[in-house]
Amino acid sequence: MITYYDDRSVQVTSTAVRVDGRTFRLAEISMVWHRRGSRSWRVLAGRGAIGAALAGPLVAAALGIALALWLDRSLTVTIAVVGASVLVGLAVGPVADFLFEHLDRSYARGSRQLEIWARWRGQPVRLLCTRDALRFGQIYRAVQRAVEAGQPVSPRRR
Hints:
Transmembrane segments: 44-71, 77-100
Helix content: 40-55%
Oligomer: single chain
Keywords: Membrane, Transmembrane, Transmembrane helix
Mean pLDDT: 83
CATH class of the largest domain: Mainly Beta
Pfam families: DUF6232
């Protein structure tokens, strides 16, 4: 038996697909497809908030520099305001790695509900429903490979 995918709730082998305790034998699966739901506005808003958090200190620094030049105060005051603005802009550095990691994870998880369907014993059955795009792709490809490997190869004509 070949294992194509295995985690705590899904197992795809050369004989069956097991999802949350339900077993679907590959010999009884005739077709596999997927569906994508609508986008989650909550996820998109979260990505926008991360982008704003990344851009906020840089915009504040630029506005501080513009303000320092616009006020036309003494050289000491201008240098102090520009220096403070630059420090605010540099504050994004240590935080940027943390925020970019969260942004990257949000794309890996995806923003849509993803479903894997199969025709099992002649009836359409939803095998899996998840928002995790990376996991969905791994499972979907494993099911495809298992089904393809289980299908008989037709003889070639010469």
